[in-house]
Amino acid sequence: MRHFWIALTLVLASPIALAQPASLDQLLQDIRQLRSSEQAAMREREAEFLRERDRQQQLMRQAEQELAPIKAEADRLKAEFDRLEQALADTEAQMKQRSGYLGELFGVVRQMASDTRSQWQDSLLNIQFPDRLAQLDRLASSTRIPTVESLEQFWFMLQEDMTASGRISRINAPVVDRDGQQQQAPVLLVGPFVAIADDQYLGYRSEVEVLQVLNRQPGSRDLIRDFAAPRSELADLLVDPTRGTVLAQMQQTPTFMDRVHQGGLVGYVIMALGALGVLLALAKLAWLFRVSRQIDQQANDLGNLRDDNPLGRILGVIGDQPRLEDLETLELKLDEAILRETPVLDRGNSLIKLFAAVAPLLGLLGTVTGMIVTFQAITLFGTSDPKLMAGGISQALVTTVQGLVVAIPLLFLHATLAARSKALTQVLEQQSAGLIALHLDPGAKRGE
């Protein structure tokens, strides 16, 4: 009974649809047929698996056969690599041993090439020998021991520069004029010191490898023209022994007007006050000299009183024949006349003194405004670029200098004018006192 139910379960679970059996015998026969077919399919699958296993084993044996020579070749190559690596190490050690001091020589040559490159960076002779800097760069950056040809080339360049340094040469080179136009022009090279074209000194611009006419010429064109002219005797010429450094600094050195412009608006006011003060002082000084000369002439001619000078006007207030009982009135009249003349002599001195006092204060004002500009530049751009702060610092320093330069001469001029005015006032007082003494002594003669 148990087998029956098992068979029934297999029949129901089989994917092959069976017809409804007519009897139990028919059912048993169907089950047997189904079992036989399943066993045949299992045997077929087993046979297929065995065939596939045999095929895989054959492929594996074939791969192993092919791997064996490859592995042998790899072992041979590894052994060859180890042998060559050892041979390379032995060769390097042997080369290092045989080279001796060539390594040190290589370092010295590279260092000398680099130092020479930095020395020739801004040399005027680069115009005459344009390829030597590139050769020095290759020699300085080389990673191999220099050859004999390289060393000879380096020596030849040094000898060439030495020879050219003591020679005057005429070449054609690109020259940039003051308008920025570049053109080929004949250039006179005086060693590595100066270059001349069209009777003007030239400066070397290493970044573009051209010569440029200097904005500020150190000498007269006649001196250059005489030197460049054909001749048999010696001629004078201004040269730069620093090989262009002095000429470059000359281009950057500000002129007097540049300094004035650096002071800004405050600087212009200071210079205007100074000029006005000096003109007033000189005019007043000339006027005082003229008045002094007129007073001296009047003192030598007291018999003919004139009103074109202070002494004549003072002496004219008493008349020709004063009476002795009017001496007190005479003194009062003379004092009054002197008091009228004194302000005229002192006129303008206080204004000049005011200019002398205001000039340093304006300089201080320019200093404060310049420092404000400097701190504003620091706030906006930081301290990475000092050129951004140069304008404010220049204004701060220049206005201070301008204030002092204006104040000091004005103080001396004010002191001179005050002393001269006081001296003329004393002369008037002395002459007045002498006149009173003359009237006290009727027997004395006027002028004695």
TrEMBL record:
Q: Which Pfam families match?
A: MotA_ExbB
Q: Which residues cross the membrane?
A: 265-289, 354-381, 393-413
- GO CC annotations on file: plasma membrane
Q: Which InterPro entries match?
A: ExbB/TolQ_transport (IPR050790), MotA/TolQ/ExbB-rel (IPR017270), MotA_ExbB_proton_chnl (IPR002898)
Q: What is its main location?
A: membrane
An example GO biological process term is: protein import
Keyword annotations for this protein? Answer: Cell membrane, Coiled coil, Membrane, Protein transport, Signal, Transmembrane, Transmembrane helix, Transport
Q: Which parts of the chain are coiled coil?
A: 24-94
Specify the signal sequence span: 1-19
As for membrane topology, the entry says: Multi-pass membrane protein
In which family does this protein belong, per the annotation? Answer: Belongs to the exbB/tolQ family.
Query: This chain belongs to which protein, by name?
Result: Biopolymer transport protein ExbB
What species is this protein from?
A: Halopseudomonas formosensis
Q: What lineage, starting at the top, does this entry show? A: Bacteria, Pseudomonadati, Pseudomonadota, Gammaproteobacteria, Pseudomonadales
